[in-house]
Amino acid sequence: MQQESVALHCLQKGTYLDCIKAISNNEADAISLDGGHVFEAGLAPYKLKPIVAEVYEQSGGSTTSYYAVAVVKKGTGFTINDLQGKTSCHTGLGRSAGWNIPIGTLLHRGDIKWDGKDSGSIEQENAPEEKGEYELLCLDGSRQPVDNYKACHWARVPAHAVVARDDNKVDDIWNFLSKAQEKFGVGTTGSFQLFGKKDQGPRDLLFKDSAVQLKRIPSLMDSQLYLGFEYYSAIQSLQKGRQDMKH
Fold first, then answer.
1. Are residues 103 and 211 in the same domain?
2. 230 with 156: CB under 8 angstroms?
3. Which positions fall inside the Transferrin-like domain (predicted)?
4. Is the pTM here over 0.70, yes or no?
5. Residue 205 sits in a domain of what CATH number?
6. Pairing outcome for strands 161-164 and 122-123
7. Rounded to whole angstroms, how far apart are CA atoms 137 and 197?
8. Within this chain, do residues 133 and 23 fall inside the same structural domain, yes or no?
9. Residue 86's closest CA among 102, 97, 104, 67?
């Protein structure tokens, strides 16, 4: 029996938004995106949809989400209610745990205006190795140890997702990715690995290093349903902040 083969071609673009536009214009078919970028991809005129979600391993089983937490140095004394004048560090503009959740949450609470920068945030799976030196800032005004992220987080963030046009290529994309993870996923022994960091290579190359599997998203789920109420509310607060700056 002849083995079926699928050709994969990579289209290089300067930014994620260029890739989104290329998919919308039928120049490319799919891209893996952070939740904040999934939101943008779902807007007009692009109207792309999430079709495949990354799965992460956590205590208690696997999940298609992760926790956005705010980390501070132990012994510094302040809480979420005392952030004025503090300096923050972020994983990236427009990133879910690094920007959209902390800034969107603080805007929603009325703690900052759009040009404020009052919270440091990292993704839960990238928590610092020296955990004993840090604590989490909780939304209720308390602090908790870093390991208590399930009880002290700012939002549960949807996993990174593969987005595509809502057309007849969706099945082909899933079939390709499904076969790829069977051949190169967790537990395989080949030199190429679909998930995880290889030696000292770049981080999060194809998918997040913490991903262990890919899971198909139900066909009726659009970007808003996939991102969920908490996250979508944070994004809306950011958008309102941008609009307020223009007036």
1. no
2. yes
3. 1-240
4. yes
5. 3.40.190.10
6. unpaired
7. 29
8. no
9. 102
